[in-house]
TrEMBL record:
Organism of origin: Enterococcus asini
Annotated ranges, domain HTH araC/xylS-type: 190-288
Pfam families attached to this UniProt entry: AraC_binding, HTH_18
Single Gene Ontology MF annotation: sequence-specific DNA binding
Keywords per UniProt: DNA-binding, Transcription, Transcription regulation
Protein name according to UniProt: AraC family transcriptional regulator
Length: 289
């Protein structure tokens, strides 16, 4: 798809922007930015484009804009962040009478594509953050990035890459509401986690956990996934495979005995599951260990 763009550049004199032309080496090594800035954009500010090989993150601090992307038009308000693939058609503009103030960055490299695909997995490129946008970690990270560009040294691309990765992580942490402290995890979730680890050799079902912890299976699955990162049955599978790795590498047990030891007595099923999760057959994993 050929690149094209039309735009109106109505932003205030105290707005800032930086361009970057990283070396091929740094493009291969790092997360990199092509352009970033902090804008106070006045009507009739807009950008309409397609075919740009870049991903754009834009975080709104005040004022309002709108975004048309993937055949949807959404109003963008303070605290909203959008993450788009600029190869696709996009059109965004200021819609409020006051300036649309935002942090923004065009990025590529590293696992940017994978982060983007995870962000839009729920079906939208727009997410509303909680609390004061000016105190949000997304704003803090982008402010640090802008400061770095104003103080260029030989290590700027290295430091920028770390911050871009942090920015991408923070997007997912906030979208999936993972910004909790360890003490926020309910006691029953920790008890359930310990129970699963202590009973690796036994079959565990949602029905069993439902009765043991007095929760309906929907809530149980949802809450466990939120705090532990996966549903309880999947967690048991991961723990079984991790235990199997340990036994294959550091014990003299036969592979069949390893399978039995982690509660997977069907050897064929164990072998298929192990290869699916690790990419290696149990025998191969043992040999290269």
């Amino acid at each position: 798809m050929a690149y094209w763009e039309t735009a109106d550049h109505s932003w205030t004199p105290d707005s800032s922007r930086f361009f970057n032309t990283p070396s091929q080496k740094n493009r291969d090594l790092f997360y990199v930015y092509q352009e970033m800035g902090h804008f106070k954009a006045l009507k009739p500010y807009y950008t309409e484009r397609s075919g740009l090989s870049s991903y754009l993150i834009k975080f709104t601090l005040s004022g309002e804009g709108s975004l048309t992307y993937q055949e949807r038009t959404e109003r963008i308000t303070p605290g909203d962040v959008f993450f788009i693939d600029c190869r696709n058609y996009q059109y965004y503009k200021t819609v409020s009478e006051e300036p649309w103030e935002m942090d923004w960055i065009h990025i590529s490299g590293g696992q940017t594509k994978a982060f983007y695909e995870e962000f839009v997995r729920t079906g939208t490129s727009v997410f509303h953050t909680q609390g004061d946008p000016w105190q949000n970690p997304l704003h803090m990270i982008m402010t640090k990035l802008l400061y770095l560009q104003d103080k260029q040294t030989t290590k700027t691309d290295f430091e920028s890459s770390v911050l871009i990765h942090e920015l991408l992580n923070e997007l997912l942490i906030q979208k999936y509401q993972l910004n909790f402290q360890d003490q926020d995890i309910p006691a029953y979730i920790l008890e359930m986690k310990d129970y699963i680890i202590d009973h690796l050799q036994e079959p565990i079902t949602l029905e069993l956990l439902e009765h043991k912890f007095h929760l309906n299976r929907y809530q149980l699955n949802k809450e466990f996934s939120r705090y532990i990162g996966m549903p309880p049955i999947e967690y048991q599978i991961h723990q079984r495979i991790s235990k199997a790795k340990d036994l294959l590498r550091y014990s003299d047990l036969s592979i069949q005995e390893v399978a039995t030891n982690v509660g997977l007595e069907n050897f064929s099923y164990f072998s298929r599951l192990f290869k699916k999760k690790t990419g290696l057959a149990p025998s191969t994993f043992r040999k290269i260990g």
